[in-house]
Amino acid sequence: MGVIGVFNCENAAELVYYGLHALQHRGQEGCGICTTDGSDFFRERGEGLVTEIFNEKKLAKLKGNGAIGHVRYSSGDDGGLENVQPFLFRHHTGDFAMAHNGNFVNSRQLRMALEAQGSIFQSSSDTEILAHLMKMNRRRDRIEAIEEALNMIEGAFAFLILTNEKLYVCRDKNGLRPISIGKINGGYVVSSETCAFEAIGATFVRDVEPGEMVIFEKEKEPLSILFSEESSHKMCAMELVYFARPDSEIENVNVHTFRKNCGKYLAQLAPVKADLVIGVPDSSISGAIGYAEESGIPYEIGLIKNKYIGRTFIQPSQILREKGVRLKLSPVRSLITGKRVILLDDSIVRGTTCKRIVKMLKDAGAKEVHVRICCPSMHHPCFYGVDTSTYNELISAQKDVEEVRKTIEADSLFFLPEEYLLKAGNRNDLCLACYNGKYPTHLYQSKIDFNIEHKF
Ligand code: 5GP
Ligand code: SF4
Ligand code: MG
Predict the structure, then answer these.
(1) Which pLDDT tens digit goes with each residue over 49-86?
(2) How far is ligand 3, taken at its centre, from the CA of residue 16, in Å?
(3) Does the first or last residue of the chain, that is N or C, have fewer Cβ atoms within 10 Å of its Cβ?
(4) Distance between CA 336 and CA 361 in Å, rounded?
(5) How many angstroms separate the alpha carbon of residue 303 from the centre of ligand 2?
(6) 345 C-alpha vs ligand 3 centroid, how far in Å?
(7) How far apart are CA 111 and CA 83, in angstroms?
(8) CB contact at 8 A, 102 and 158
(9) Residue 350 gets which letter from DSSP?
(10) What is the pLDDT of residues 198-251, one digit of tens each?
């Protein structure tokens, strides 16, 4: 999921709209924008891509100098319009809108406690829980109320809260989800990824720190508050490996450079004689370039992705699939026939996509396919909003590397070790829980939900 907010800028909705286009890779199921003109809120949202949901007429309705936007994919919670953000809350102390990226691990406990006190929820989304927590305690000071509520949440979050006067940005104490601040036209913009800053002509200022809340208010300097003293830097490694766009800078690391380094280390650790290196578009192109550069084996565009297949794409029937109809990804046959290919991919989750790609390359005449994965093997589910499945579905939780290699029918397979992943980003502080099971937070009921107690 991705969030973006613009504060104290004319045409705030338009800027958020273009920003959401730049964040579209983070979620394609739904999107929305909510604005304020200082006295009223305006909102448009729907299920689909940003181009499908918004048009000039709808944007014209989104008045005001403050706006927040969201792109979503479902991760645990149900689909449906009621879960499409931003959420808008009406309250006698002042209306407010919220957008959130991440996932709580104690949402069930919080929900039950809130319902016992009389809260009624409209959606199954975690975002609504924060709204209720904020309003549950009777403190008059809003900042204190938000701080207290944030400290009751365990898990991953980058939150935007828009009121008639202010924009609040909050990042969880482990910094699991990234969020950055930029400047634009005398106002401010905050975004899950810095690629949105480039898109709208904003300049990067800094990242929001783990456990920090930044408050933007007209004619005032932004106010920074540390709501948690236990902050640590455990940003999600998969943000760098898979989610983010290569042109984004996350915590001072350029995503393309990071992935290129991963490819470079794979070439050093797992060399193999081959004729060309290819990457699975889009997230593994940088890794393939790094591998090729380091090994001296030429990089080729061996796979082409059709970029125009949206949510409404009609999947080919089983019969057509067996006949070889696959429209999302196609091999460049003349490059591949008779060649020994090194295939870079970002990660293996279930192994089904990877197996399909290896087969596609072999069907196109590849003599050998050597798979190199730009992150460690995934043995544990994610509870922080990334859809990496349950133990039963994670192929590496079930099989060792040789068994995975056999399953995907590759000639060789190698996963990048953890220490090289950290080295690629020049850091020693990422969440690596889906590889090593060291979760940076308590897990509460999540273990039971996933039926995996025996694994701990
Ligand atoms: P598999 O080969 O395990 O079936 O699929 C892995 C591929 O799915 C990855 O290369 C990645 O590009 C893509 N993918 C889609 N959604 C996710 C996600 O939420 N997490 C990860 N790690 N990969 C994903
Ligand atoms: Fe990211 Fe994995 Fe940690 Fe989830 S468990 S936040 S996917 S690194
Ligand atoms: Mg992929």
Answers:
(1) 999 999 999 999 999 999 999 999 865 556 688 889 99
(2) 27
(3) C
(4) 7
(5) 28
(6) 6
(7) 16
(8) yes
(9) S
(10) 999 999 999 999 999 999 999 999 999 999 988 889 999 999 999 999 999 999
CB 65 within 8 A of CB 37: yes
- Name the strands in the sheet holding 340-345, side by side, starting at the edge strand that comes first in the sequence: 276-279, 340-345, 368-373, 412-415
Residues in the chain: 456
Query: 235 — phi, psi (to 5°)?
Result: -60, 145
Separation of alpha carbons 137 and 410, rounded Å: 57
Residue 304 corresponds to which tokens in the numbers above? 């082409």
Of 100, 93, 128, 94, which Cα lies nearest the Cα of 114?
128
Indicate the DSSP class of residue 83: G
Q: Helix, strand, or coil here: 253?
A: strand
Own/partner pairs, 146-154, CB within 8 angstroms, 24+ separation: 146/170, 146/213, 146/227, 147/213, 147/225, 147/227, 150/213, 150/227, 150/228, 151/227, 151/228, 152/110, 153/104, 153/106, 153/110, 153/129, 154/104, 154/105, 154/106, 154/441, 154/442, 154/444
User: Cis peptide before 86, with omega less than 30 degrees from 0?
Assistant: yes
352 C-beta closer than 6 A to ligand 1: yes
Q: What is the largest CA-CA distance in the chain?
A: 72
- Cβ distance 215 to 143 under 8 Å? yes
Rounded Cα gap, residues 197 and 195, in angstroms: 5
Residue type, 257: T
Please state the pTM of the whole predicted model.
0.94
State the ligand closest to the CA atom of 436: 2
Which of 301, 288, 304 shows the shortest CA–CA distance to 344? 288
Q: Is 446 in the pocket of ligand 2 (CB under 6 A)?
A: no
Distance CA 23, CA 390 (A): 27
Distance, C-alpha 356 to centroid of its chain:
24
Q: DSSP letter string over 41-62?
A: EEEEEEES-HHHH--HHHHHH-
Sequence-distant (6+) residues with CB within 8 A of 113 are: none
